[in-house]
């Protein structure tokens, strides 16, 4: 059986917050009755794996309100309206959250975080040879602990459920599968 597209009859924003909007889409299908579907409209997201020359990943430990607990993550966040592109946003987030920077930023890929209820993408990057350039510059509601983890320990931390954030795991999966070569001449 061939899968068919649903057709939007009506759309409306039903709730708005600073980080996402909730939309109700009334959709019809050639073989089904009309139904309401709810979609979160969120901005584009970014995550970046900051890797030192010694093979350490610069990570952040922070409290997450959704799970009411702490997570171990790579830097990331939203692409802000003033960001020129996702790569710029990823670098900005890395500097803001960790105080580390690099000029060697490689795209790893992009994913839909949850296509069942979201339209946005999360762009994934690797920053090579990061170096400390200052202190983290956090937003008023952010609080992070910067942690150095050997890259060789990441798989074990995922397997032992010490790293549980799906988008972080995806970034490391892309790194393992793709493993981009170092830039020429460096």
Task: Describe the model.
- Helices cover 17% and strands 42% of the residues.
- The mean pLDDT is 94.
- It has a four-stranded mixed β-sheet, with helices on both faces.
- The radius of gyration is 19 Å and the shape is elongated.
- With 186 residues, the chain is of the alpha+beta class.
In short:
The chain is of the alpha+beta class and 186 residues long. The chain is 17% helix and 42% strand. It has a four-stranded mixed β-sheet with strand order 7-4-10-9, with helices on both faces.
Mean pLDDT: 94
Number of helices: 3
Globally, the shape reads elongated
- Secondary-structure-based class equals alpha+beta
Radius of gyration computed on alpha carbons: 19 Å
Sheet with the most strands?
A: 4 strands, mixed
How many distinct beta strands? 12
Secondary-structure element order, N to C: EEEEEEEHEEEEEHH
Beta content comes to 35-45%
Distance between the termini: 52 Å
Low-confidence stretches: none
Q: How are the strands of the largest sheet arranged?
A: 7-4-10-9
Helix content: 10-25%
